[in-house]
Design brief:
The structure holds 2 protein chains of 2 kinds.
Chain A lengths: L4 E4 L3 H9 L4 E4 L5 H6 L7 E4 L8 E3 L5 E4 L4 H6 L1 H6 L1 H8 L4 H6 L2 H5 L6 H4 L41 H7 L3 E5 L5 E5 H4 L18 E7 L6 E7 L10 E7 L5 E6 L9 H4 L6 H8 L12 H17 L1
Parallel strand pairs in A: 1-3, 2-3
Antiparallel strand pairs in A: 4-5, 5-8, 6-7, 6-8, 9-10, 10-11
Helix pairs in contact in A: 5-9, 12-13
Chain B lengths: L1 E6 L2 E6 L6 H8 L18 E4 L2 E4 L12 E3 L1 H4 L7 H9 L8 H17 L17 H7 L10 H15 L1
Parallel strand pairs in B: 1-5
Antiparallel strand pairs in B: 1-2, 3-4, 3-5
Helix pairs in contact in B: 3-6
The chains are: A alpha+beta, B alpha+beta.
């Protein structure tokens, strides 16, 4: 691990200022992804600003009838919250489908949104990777790509966003709240938070340098039946090959988002409108224009089957 | 940097490089070698300890981030003369072979039963609004962050079931 200096922030604007004013500075909360990457020197911050003492550890009702989730609420606490289990079950389900109990105890809501891809070529510093080292090329293209993206990817990078929680947040139309070094706040719809990076795979999140996530808000509950169907190589503690987050209403309409397939949680509103017609119609529309490799073309029929399974459960 | 950890009930003052993980602070600086280093990347669970009562991977946390925290390691759970019930159950049910992953397994197992009692949900729970139960399926799912290369899993689940039964 490269050497770095460390400070523990006492207020949000000071934290934002500490990172914004210093190239190479980063926030650290749970640290489960950042430290993993620092050990292999994929991440090489020169200064860490520890935000664990900031007052972002509560889940509160909003005046609009939704929930405001503090950025530091742990994955375990979020999945356990009675209101989340009852009214936003897809969110609770997505969280417990990811990582391990130990990691969920440490991982924060904001950090989970900011986790980096698990593309093996991003992790291996001997390999070309445009995301890790812009302009160096992409060893994943033409390499082992079974886990990698099938849609929304580019000629520069075929990695995926690996998380589960964000897929449910995308389904629920969550909003990411931030504050910057000048104390200015901003609300970013989750649909715009993770970017389709095109020729700039190093640009993953719609955040300015030093912009700090303070909370994630959920609109009013949707009702309906909630599902998070995750298909992976082992039954627990593995990243998704394909995941399906869905809320299905009694009249068979609903919402659908997919994980494990793209640089961001993949939700196509025009596709989910076809839910009453069944899984084939939805995925044909949602994955129109997909560019799978030979190794990961199986993800397309797998997404259809995973959604068909969800629809069958909703009918039962 | 100067810092203090409360380890197994004792205040321990340390001065550490910022890069020192909680795991290395425990093993290399406090010489509490019960906690094991396996993968050092949060994938195997051998380094599991309890921090303020919650299980975490001590390899994926900086010691400096735990200034003032209460850490419980395997040495703090029980002693050879006075085993923690989970330690005694692992012995009785042969919940290990080589033993390298065992301290992490036991710390994790103790926390799993506490998490079930507290109502933390899991992936295998049918009804999220119901209180989770300490079933074999629940143990297997909740212990998936602890790898055992010897494959003692079924005996570990038996040991946990015995302790869970005694708690009920």
């Amino acid at each position: 691990m490269k050497a770095f200096t460390y400070e523990r922030a006492k207020d949000p604007v000071a934290a934002a200022r500490a990172v914004a004013g210093r190239p190479g500075a980063k926030f650290i909360a749970g640290g489960t992804n950042l430290l993993d990457l620092m050990k292999i020197e994929v991440e090489v911050p020169t200064h860490l600003v520890d935000v664990q003492d900031l007052p972002f550890d509560k889940i509160e009702q909003t005046p609009e009838g939704g929930l405001r989730i503090g950025a530091l609420v742990t994955n375990t606490d979020l999945a356990t919250d009675e209101r989340v289990r009852r009214d936003y079950a897809v969110l609770s389900r997505s969280i417990v489908a990811g990582a391990s109990g130990q990691l969920r105890n440490k991982a924060s809501t904001a950090g989970n949104l900011l986790q980096r891809t698990r593309c093996p070529y991003f992790y291996d510093t001997n390999m070309a990777c445009n995301k890790r080292k812009p302009g160096s090329g992409c060893a994943a293209i033409g390499g082992f790509s079974r886990q990698l993206g099938v849609i929304g990817v580019s000629k520069s990078c075929i990695a995926t966003f690996p998380g589960d929680m964000a897929v449910a947040l995308r389904l629920l139309d969550a909003v990411v709240e931030t504050i910057d070094a000048k104390g200015k706040t901003r609300a970013i719809p989750i649909a715009e938070f993770h970017m389709l990076w095109g020729d700039h795979p190093e640009r993953e999140f719609a955040l300015a340098p030093g912009e700090l996530i303070t909370a994630v808000t959920l609109p009013q509950p949707l009702g309906g039946k909630h599902y998070y169907e995750k298909v992976r190589d082992r039954a627990s503690y593995a990243f998704a090959l394909v995941s399906v987050a869905a809320v299905i209403q009694p009249d068979r309409t609903g919402r659908v988002a997919f994980g494990g397939v793209a640089p961001k949680p993949w939700r196509v509103e025009a596709a989910e409108a076809l839910l009453p017609q069944g899984a084939v119609a939805v995925t044909a529309k949602a994955f129109a224009g997909a560019t799978p490799t030979k190794d990961n073309a199986f993800k397309l029929p797998l997404a259809t089957r995973a959604l068909a399974s969800v629809i069958a459960q909703a009918k039962a | 940097m100067p810092m203090m950890l409360k380890v197994n009930g004792q205040k321990r003052s340390l001065s550490l490089d910022t890069r020192t993980t909680l795991l290395d602070a425990l093993r290399e600086h406090l010489h509490l070698t019960g906690t094991k280093k396996g993968c050092d990347h949060g994938q195997c669970g051998a380094c599991t300890v309890l921090v303020n009562g919650k299980r975490i991977n001590s390899c994926l946390s900086l010691a400096i981030m735990h200034d003032g925290d209460e850490i419980t390691t395997i040495e703090g759970l029980g002693t050879p003369d006075k085993l923690h019930p989970m330690q005694a159950a692992f012995v009785k049910h042969d919940g290990y072979q080589c033993g390298y992953c065992t301290p992490g397994q036991i710390c994790s197992a103790v926390a799993v039963l506490e998490e079930i009692a507290r109502g933390v949900p899991s992936h295998v729970q049918d009804d999220l609004t119901a209180a989770p139960r300490a079933t074999n399926m629940e143990m297997r799912e909740r212990m998936s962050g602890n790898i055992c290369r010897c494959g003692a899993y079924s005996n570990i689940a038996d040991a946990m079931a015995e302790v869970a039964g005694g708690m009920g």
